[in-house]
Amino acid sequence: MYTPELDEIRAVRERIRPWVRHTPMMPLPSLIEDRPSGLRLKLENLQVSGSFKARGAFNHLLQMTPEQRVRGVVAASGGNHGLAIAYASKRLDIAATIYLPTTASADRVARIRAWGTTVILHGDNPNDALQRAKEHGEAEGMVYVHPFDADRTIQGTATLGLELLEDLPDVDCVLIAIGGGGLIAGMSSAIKQLRPDVKIIGVEPTGAPSMQAAINAGHVVQLANTTTIADTLAPRSVSERTRALTEKYVDDLVLVEDAAMVRAMRWLWRECNQLVEPAGAAVIAAFQSGVVDLSPYKRPVALICGGNAAAESVFVSYER
Questions:
Q1: Which CATH architecture describes the domain 54-145?
Q2: Which whole-number Å values give the CA distances from 76 to 83, 302, 308, in the listed order?
Q3: From CA 274, how far away is CA 266, in angstroms rounded?
Q4: What is the pLDDT of residues 212-228, one digit of tens each?
């Protein structure tokens, strides 16, 4: 099983440092009565391109050879990975083609195209788009960047673990959302190598429990379908790479309902002035709905992974 070593993660952090932001660690206002004591928010929704995905994207593209840059890069995404690749490729002057599922929001499609990226809609799930993007890359000799099942992607997300520990050295619990598992695999590997006592809790939608299914089975499980408003947390399966790292380093997995994520989005906007997508609010939904008890912890952190929500419709289109 591949595990990114600390020296390797530090080297990646130096590589991508000029291209990404050190995002803020936000303590909640003391007047918020329903906040867990000591809770802080790591605002990766304020990262370039709007999510943590920029870390892995730049780690991939900065290591492309001159010949590979000429051929370009291809990727597939529910939205945020595509945005990150589009942004990074624009900054580095590399042609990019992004496959999105037909269910991707018009807002995300427009944002990706705005960076001059070729967008192709294919399939009704991120997994369908992933397979087609991989085939495209092989046929055209283009570098294919997987959103979570790649060492360089996990190395990129691991830099966020180092950054969090620098921001709050005495952190004792971290809540992290799970889609394909690249975020939690990288972050947890970095955090646990330095602070094995930190409790790490993964959060998935009830309609897309791909990591929980894989951990329970002891191998990757392909879900028949996924049903959740958190489209960036909705792949039908994780990878063996992310499953193994999650099994090794993550202490607990919990599930949250879509309605709880909507309430958490409203709370983040009302109390913290943070407009986030459902995936970014999943960790807030976890303690607000009671599936996670943060009372035993003095310095818990909720990782707000992404903020790419359509502002004009965010509190309407997600209602059921």
A1: 3-Layer(aba) Sandwich (3.40)
A2: 10, 27, 17
A3: 9
A4: 999 999 999 999 989 99
